[in-house]
Amino acid sequence: MSNRVALVTGAAQGIGRGIATSLAEAGFRVAVADLNVEAAERTAKELVAAGGTAIAVAIDVTDSASVAAAVAAVERDLGPVEVVVNNAGWDDFMPFVRTTEQFWDRILDINFKGALRVTKAVLPGMIERGFGRIINIGSDAGRVGSSLEAVYSGAKGGIIAFTKTLAREVATDGITANTVCPGPTDTPALRAFANGSGGDAEKVIAGMTRAVPMRRLGTPEDVGPAVAFFASDAAGFITGQTLSVSGGLTMA
């Protein structure tokens, strides 16, 4: 059990909600940070109703001022951020030749630079206090590539490399940095993609499922415990690591 403060971005639904739930169940005081404040408030209330400690916080990871305001709100209401989970992300599926620079910029701004902004905002305090857990949510797409996700895969590969380098830089400051890489996960975002695939939603989901050795998609509840482990005191000597939660899709 822990009473530490954990800030989770993109935590209102999907994988982020699963992560926030696992952390709350482990005793962390959780800041449910999301661009969708109403959804974040619903999630926070559900965590509190289940016996946890949680607050909702508005955050736009593409805006440094919004990030700074969110961190300040968490510190005011819960205390210094000791654990940060950079989960907020966005993607769309299309061949690389159809992408535009505007699309590239949005993918990188949310999935890569968003994590940089949040980490930069909380890291000085972690260094000063001599403790911190940084968990970045990557993707198996960033490890082995994924058709129709070239730019997203590149951004997630960047997250993996950034996390390893950060882990080296802060290893003597009592801070660990690790990456959790989900595989295909049954979330509202995935269902929206499948439903927009020209009426072949079930075929899309079935194809993803067949690619996983365990023959099922992941769930947010599968990802949360891996993050909670990296956030725990038990993982104090583990840093710079990349862990896939993908039913065996990636074994490397």
Would you kindly provide a written description of the structure presented here, covering whatever features stand out?
By secondary structure, the chain is an alpha/beta fold. The protein folds into 2 domains: 5-183 and 220-242, NAD(P)-binding Rossmann-like Domain (Rossmann fold, 3-Layer(aba) Sandwich), CATH 3.40.50; 184-217, no CATH class. Helices cover 48% and strands 15% of the residues. The protein contains 10 helices and 7 strands. It has helices spanning 14-25, 37-49, 64-77, 101-111, 113-129, 141-144, 150-169, 188-195, 201-211, 220-231, and strands at residues 5-9, 29-34, 53-58, 83-86, 132-137, 175-182, 242-245. A 7-stranded parallel beta sheet has the order 3-2-1-4-5-6-7, with helices on both faces. Helix 1 (14-25) crosses helix 10, helix 3 runs parallel beside helix 5 (113-129) and helix 4 (101-111) packs parallel to helix 7. The protein is globular. 45% of the residues are buried.
The percentage helix is 40-55%
Continuous helix count: 10
- Largest sheet geometry: 7 strands, parallel
Mean pLDDT: 93
Calculate Rg over CA atoms.
17 Å
Q: Summarize this, please?
A:
This protein is of the alpha/beta class. Helix content is 48%, strand content 15%.
